[in-house]
């Protein structure tokens, strides 16, 4: 193939927004009816449509996925001095709300089959907590890049120790585990509609639950915890976390095409897999049997010796070609912010750190053209020193 100069090459983004065009119709509806507020018909409809899509009793639309996690912790009564367990291999937004509540995060390593929370590390952490008489107030389980964690094993442990589970499904809307939609396993599920997620409202989130009572408490907290009174009266701390009716309109149009978006991302994954899986030292994030990943991001891992180059070298080659690729999340237990926090390793091996050091997320947008994807594929092959 002819290698053109990079200068004129358009930038290939990791996971850009993908609009349908219909968003503008819903936005116009909001303007025409003057529902320019964090309440309104689009908000109500978006909540109902998302709850129906994942098959739960109700949902609350909020301003971000982070806000949704914060509300979940708040609803579970997490407070200063409490302990909360959290997957280590994740984006910082999974763990920051633990600090907002003044609680102590304990990080749980990944296991190799899903790259998500290791049930055996979780079990050791629970045994230790029980021994000192201080069980966690919640376990936050992340479904990385769309892949569900080992829910049966994790939930069995949470039930055994009677600890509530929050499912951070920010990256896994449209995925499923044994046929059940991602985000519906815990006491709370949370989704994100940030600009880079599988569907977006530019910024936004959702918290779902099967308890209407708990959801109405969430609604109360998310609207400044205003007591029922004729004047403004408040007896507990609240937040301003509701989603704008304009943005909910965007979300409704996006949700209508969620299955198409999932299929497109899975096609992107399949094309990478077909073209690159023969390369020595390059492996793909697995999809556990009986799970269905939305393949939000295609993640690979590089064995430097076999591949002939490090993941860092590959990342720089991509940057030079104006391709946005990213390292796998840096585990929370390696972050300066969480330096003091306990960490439970999968076994005598730490699984998440090597994934961070060798892992790369490839451009995976549902609007990635075949031509652009070929540029990414050729860049990987070039670094692997395969003739293209
Ligand atoms: C994006 C993301 C969040 C936070 O969502 P925001 O809407 O950006 O606040 C939380 N957890 C994970 C795993 C995410 O990827």
Write a short abstract of this structure.
This protein is α/β, with parallel strands linked by helices.
Give a description of the structure.
It contains 13 helices and 15 strands. By secondary structure, the protein is an alpha/beta fold. It folds into 2 domains: 4-16 and 258-383, Aspartate Aminotransferase, domain 1; 23-255, Aspartate Aminotransferase, domain 2, CATH 3.40.640. The strands form 3 sheets. An 8-stranded mixed beta sheet has the order 1-9-8-5-4-2-3-14, sandwiched between helices. β6 (176-177) and β7 form a beta hairpin. The longest helix is centred in the last third of the chain and has 19 residues, at 258-276. It is globular. The structure holds pyridoxal-5'-phosphate.
Multimeric status of the protein:
single chain
CATH class of the largest domain: Alpha Beta
Residue ranges: pLDDT <50 for 5 or more in a row? Answer: none
In which range does the helix fraction lie?
Answer: 25-40%
Number of domains: 2
Bound molecules: pyridoxal-5'-phosphate
Number of helices: 13
Query: Could you report the average pLDDT, rounded to the nearest whole number?
Result: 96
What is the global morphology?
globular
Q: For the largest beta sheet, what order do the strands appear in spatially?
A: 1-9-8-5-4-2-3-14
Q: What is the H/E string?
A: HHEHEHEHEHEEEEEHHHEEEHHEEHEH
How many strands in all?
15
* Major sheet characteristics: 8 strands, mixed
- Rg (CA only): 21 Å
Quickly give the structural class.
Answer: alpha/beta
Measured between the Cα atoms of the first and last residue, the distance is 6 Å
CATH topology of the largest domain: Aspartate Aminotransferase, domain 2
Sheet-strand content, in percent, reads 5-15%
Write out the CATH superfamily name of the largest domain.
Type I PLP-dependent aspartate aminotransferase-like (Major domain)
């Amino acid at each position: 193939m002819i290698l053109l100069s990079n200068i004129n090459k358009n930038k290939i983004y990791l996971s850009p927004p993908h609009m349908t065009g219909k968003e503008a119709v819903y936005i116009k509806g909001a303007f025409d009816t003057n529902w320019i507020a964090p309440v309104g018909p689009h908000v109500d409809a978006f909540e109902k449509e998302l709850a129906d899509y994942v098959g739960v009793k109700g949902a609350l639309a909020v301003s971000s996925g982070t806000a949704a996690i914060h509300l979940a912790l708040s609803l579970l009564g997490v407070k200063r001095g409490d302990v909360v367990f959290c997957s280590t291999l994740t984006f910082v937004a999974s763990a920051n709300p633990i600090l907002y509540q003044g609680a102590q995060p304990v990080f749980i390593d990944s296991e190799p089959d899903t790259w998500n929370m290791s049930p055996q590390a979780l079990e050791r952490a629970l045994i230790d907590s029980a021994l000192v008489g201080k069980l966690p107030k919640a376990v936050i389980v992340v479904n990385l890049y769309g892949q569900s964690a080992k829910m049966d094993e994790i939930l069995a442990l949470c039930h055994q120790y009677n600890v509530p589970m929050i499912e951070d499904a920010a990256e896994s809307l449209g995925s499923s585990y044994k046929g059940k939609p991602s985000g519906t396993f815990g006491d709370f599920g949370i989704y994100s509609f940030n600009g880079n997620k599988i569907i977006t409202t530019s910024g936004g989130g959702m918290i779902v639950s099967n308890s209407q009572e708990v959801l109405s408490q969430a609604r109360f907290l998310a609207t400044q915890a205003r007591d029922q009174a004729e004047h403004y009266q408040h007896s507990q701390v609240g937040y301003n976390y509701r989603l704008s009716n304009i943005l909910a309109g965007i979300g409704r149009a996006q949700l209508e095409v969620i299955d198409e978006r999932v299929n497109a991302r899975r096609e992107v994954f399949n094309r990478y897999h077909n073209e690159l899986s023969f390369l020595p030292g390059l492996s793909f994030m697995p999809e556990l049997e009986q799970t269905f990943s939305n393949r939000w991001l295609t993640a690979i891992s590089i064995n430097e010796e076999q591949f002939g180059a490090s993941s860092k070298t590959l990342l720089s080659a991509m940057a030079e070609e104006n391709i946005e690729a990213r390292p796998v999340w840096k585990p929370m237990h390696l972050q300066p912010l969480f330096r003091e926090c306990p960490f439970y390793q999968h076994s005598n091996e730490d699984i998440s750190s090597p994934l961070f050091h060798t892992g790369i997320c490839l451009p995976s947008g549902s609007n990635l053209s075949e031509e652009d994807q070929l540029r990414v594929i050729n860049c990987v092959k070039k670094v692997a020193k395969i003739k293209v």
